[in-house]
Amino acid sequence: MIAETTNRLFAETPLVRKKQRREWVARLIFGMMAAAMIIPLLLIIGYLVYQGAPLISWDFLTTNPVGGMRRGGIWSALLGTIWLVGVSLLIAAPIGVMAAVYLNEYARDNWFNRIINLAVINLAGVPSIVHALFGLGAFVLFARMGRSVLAASLTLAIMTLPVIIASTREALASVPRTFREACWNVGATRWQTIRRIVLPNSISGILTGVILQVSRTAGETAPIMFTGAVFFRSISEGDFFAYGLKEQCMALSMHLYTVTTQVTGAPKPLPYAIAVVLLGTVLLVNATAIVLRVYLRSRKKW
Amino acid sequence: MSDPQKLAITTRALNLWYAKFQALIDVTVDIKHGIITSLIGPSGCGKTTLLRCFNRVNERYGYVTTTGEIKLHGKNIYDDDVSLVELRKSAGMVFQRPNPLPISVYENVVFGLRIHKEGGDLKRSVLDEAVEVALTEVGLWQDLKDRLDMRATNLQLEQQQKLCIARLLPLKPEIILMDEPCSALDVEGTRAIEELMFALKGRYTIVIVTHNMAQARRASDECIFMLLGELIEHSRTEELFLTPKNPKTADYIEGRYG
Ligand SMILES: Nc1ncnc2c1ncn2[C@@H]1O[C@H](COP(=O)(O)OP(=O)(O)OP(=O)(O)O)[C@@H](O)[C@H]1O
Ligand SMILES: [Mg+2]
């Protein structure tokens, strides 16, 4: 009897078994939901590539559309998107990062800063078509930029600023406060603290956040439609500086929209091929961001 | 060694609020120069807060209000002509968790010098000497002289804490404020830090917050007991522990509060 009890010491009871079963089921369900994220991505990419494959080639990327956009490539649209994204990055990144540094490192809790925070949050909620109208009014008409790469990029920049600010603040907040305290206590000013400790330790997060946010604008159509993108333009092939800031440009997102809805008799794979290139551009930019992050992370720190 | 009557820190009717919550109530204290003063009291009684007042670091938290007077070496630190930078240089703080900066040992020690230099670069030889002097003073030089490029956050905790003390020294502080500097360390580490405190005493005024009664008894010359934001008793350490004047102090040192 006694031997029996000792042998059963620490053995599973039915209750434990029941708990384990539940644990297992919960884990399975949550895991499946997480894995489900991969499926849409693979399906989308697979379907697009399958449909668009017949058209995709190097020439497709590097020649202008011809024949009422039914034939030829997408060079002018691809270059347009690169310009729009690039210029809006150059505008939004410094402003957004500096604003975030102010909000995270300097701002005290007073009404002025609360208003700034409120503005940032609300700006993030403004629909892109409203940004488009604002861009049209402010940049195209009022500032007399006309419909141009510059006006469209500014509009995109304003649209991305709130998310850049949010992601930068997150990166800054991940630097432990003890580092800041250590600095203050040897008499470092805020700026010295930021420059010597906070920025070097958050730069990887800041950069990748900024790039990821900006790459998302590559897909925007509404804000550029009124402010700088045109249906069709032929530019010199192979020249990266074929567009000027004051000129109008084509863009992949808009080209895709045009080809699907306005052009009759376009070959069936064409919209898919454009979509593949658009997606490819975004993924390429994201991949760069990730490589950059891994590189910068490998050189740091605590 | 040093004039025992000289006062390093004095406060008069010091009150401090975190937003609406009053964390320090009418604190009046005279801390003597060149000795070790310990600050004891139950958790949340305002020890850290008081310590942070002495170099005005509390103000960095925005919603803090202070009234009353604090003087360091006779100078009111709320005077208009007081530079926070200079103030914090001369009253450095050591924290509960060692907080070396995520840079090399060498750069940690010279960090203060670098941020206070007046234009131009400091000579390498000046920096090298500062590092050797500071690390020797805290007893790390022998261990670390060949590993100065090592990332400071990879050191052992005890070494990190010593480094945090060494980091203050090149700035020639008068006062070293320590907030439970040993609570993350084991017995060996604690002893090492205490020995270091003894070595530094005399040249520096040391104020140390501790939860460890034995440490307060061993390591301090004078002792301050606080309760719920008020200063209850301040006297020589032996007196405070052997013949406390206030019954609350007696209760606390006999372990009747948490
Ligand atoms: N930054 C802060 N904001 C608001 N209240 C605070 C802040 N820091 C401390 N307090 C409050 O002030 C009181 C005193 O805190 P303080 O940290 O000075 O106590 P302490 O004596 O150091 O305690 P411990 O022994 O736990 O370190 C506590 O009630 C605490 O909740
Ligand atoms: Mg404390």
Structural class of chain B: alpha/beta
CATH topology of the largest domain in chain A: MetI-like fold
Rg over C-alpha atoms of chain A, rounded to the nearest angstrom: 26 Å
Looking at CATH, the homologous superfamily of the largest domain in chain A is MetI-like
Give average pLDDT of chain B, whole number. Answer: 88
Which CATH class of the domain at 4-98 and 174-253 in chain B?
Alpha Beta
Determine the number of helices of chain A (DSSP H or I, runs of at least 4 residues).
Answer: 13
The coarse silhouette of chain A is globular
Number of domains of chain A: 2
CATH topology of the domain at 4-98 and 174-253 in chain B: Rossmann fold
Q: Helix content range of the residues of chain A, please?
A: over 70%
Uncertain parts of chain B: none
Percent of residues of chain A in beta strands? under 5%
Largest interface: A-B, 20 and 30 residues
Principal-axis shape of chain B: globular
Number of strands of chain B: 10
Spatial separation of the terminal alpha carbons of chain B: 38 Å
Structural class of chain A: mainly alpha
CATH superfamily of the domain at 4-98 and 174-253 in chain B: P-loop containing nucleotide triphosphate hydrolases
H/E element order of chain B:
EEEHEEHEHHHHEHEHEEHH
Strand order in space, largest sheet of chain A: 1-2
Task: Tell me the layout of helices and strands.
The complex is a heterodimer of chains A (302) and B (258).
Chain A: H1 2-7, H2 14-35, H3 38-52, H4 58-62, E1 65-66, E2 71-72, H5 75-106, H6 111-125, H7 128-142, H8 149-173, H9 177-184, H10 190-216, H11 222-225, H12 252-261, H13 269-298
Antiparallel strand pairs in A: 1-2
Helix pairs in contact in A: 3-13, 5-8, 5-10, 5-12, 6-8, 7-8, 8-10, 9-10, 10-13, 12-13
Chain B: E1 7-18, E2 21-32, E3 36-40, H1 47-53, E4 64-72, E5 75-76, H2 84-90, E6 91-94, H3 105-116, H4 124-137, H5 141-144, H6 157-168, E7 175-179, H7 187-200, E8 205-209, H8 213-219, E9 222-227, E10 230-236, H9 237-242, H10 247-253
Parallel strand pairs in B: 3-8, 3-9, 6-7, 7-8
Antiparallel strand pairs in B: 1-2, 1-4, 4-5, 9-10
The complex binds adenosine-5'-triphosphate (ATP) and magnesium ion.
Adenosine-5'-triphosphate binds at residues 18, 21, 23, 41, 43-49, 61 of chain B.
